[in-house]
Amino acid sequence: MSYRSDLLSTLIGFIPGGGLLVWGLVRALVPPSQRALTRWAARYGLHLSDVNRSVVSRYLQRTRSLEMAGAGVGWIASGLFVTGTGQFVPLFGIPLMMAIAGYLLGAVIAEATFIRQLAAPAGMRSAALTPRALVDYVPRLTVWALRALPAVLVVLAVLYALTPRHAETPSDVSPTLVLAASALLVVVAFAVDRLLQAIVARPQPAINAELMAADEAIRASSIHALSGAGVGLVLVGIGAVLFALQYASTNDALGAWLGYPATLAILLSLLSWVRLGHPRTWRVRRSSQLLSTP
Amino acid sequence: MILRVDPASPVPPYEQIRSQVATMIATGVLPKGHRLPTIRQLAADLGLAGGTVARAYRELEQAGLIVSRGRHGTSVAAGNATSRRDRERAVIQAASAFAAQAAQAGVDPRAALDRALETFKVS
What we know:
heterodimer; A: 294 residues; 10 helices; B: 123 residues; mainly alpha; 3-stranded antiparallel β-sheet; 5 helices; 57% helix
């Protein structure tokens, strides 16, 4: 193991990843502050009350800690890869991809374990007479991005596999690896899409208006986190393949130009993860019809 | 617009759904063109089998109260707009049915009214 690879793995993997992991663990122990609760509620147009405050607090504590810890573990995994292989990761953006993947996994675990707490009590059953649809909770563009971007990724991966190589190409990435990684990302995007549909379809506790409003906000927040990370993950994959194409291209002009869309894809992936996953304001579109508080 | 189903009631769940939706349409609570949840969504929310909700929807459709348009979902049928007098009459009928059901079940009228008021608060 060279001194250079040790230093690189520490710098790019263990320090930021460890920081995220510790932050996530701290969040698991400390409930969200009153200010954080109020800010989150304002973002989703939710009126906090004695009925829904504890549910929202538990939701935020669990999701934020698991998402942050997941991102940390993912980032550390990229550092472990560098340490294990003794070489710098050839595909640009791998630490980011692993962090988003870890965050996504954390969000899935949080969603799967939290929904049980929202179950309606036994006895009288109730339901709102209003249909729920994915586009009520997330912009339509996000839904389409999650479905269209995997196709772009597959086209680029096939293009990479067919591209003639420089003899002295600095890229070590085999076409098989790129195709396999792209196929995996397509599967993940499809799984995220199905999961979003499942979140929309999960039963709603129509016990009272305040709890229903909290459920709507929680549902929207979960859908944002998962779709933002899902789109981000595919975008970082597109960026990585574009960078690989740039290194492998025999056409110098094309190779130089490919760096721009690749960088843009990486930046968009960050933007998607941060802004689509955590919008500044979002109200469930039919909330005024459904949740008119008496 | 909250639908309630009491599993302990002698009235079958599909009939509870059908009668409540029919009343909501008759009283104008559910206006013409209002989209209803899918059978799957309503069944999941109420913890019932899909067939139960499907039967209620089928009977409502046969009565001309709702219309199913395949992928576009189910909505309140056109032509159900009622006058104020009709709506008041429908409320009186619903109240009579409610009073009769409460008396039949042996529920104290005041307790039944309290329960009705609670229902108003959440819907």
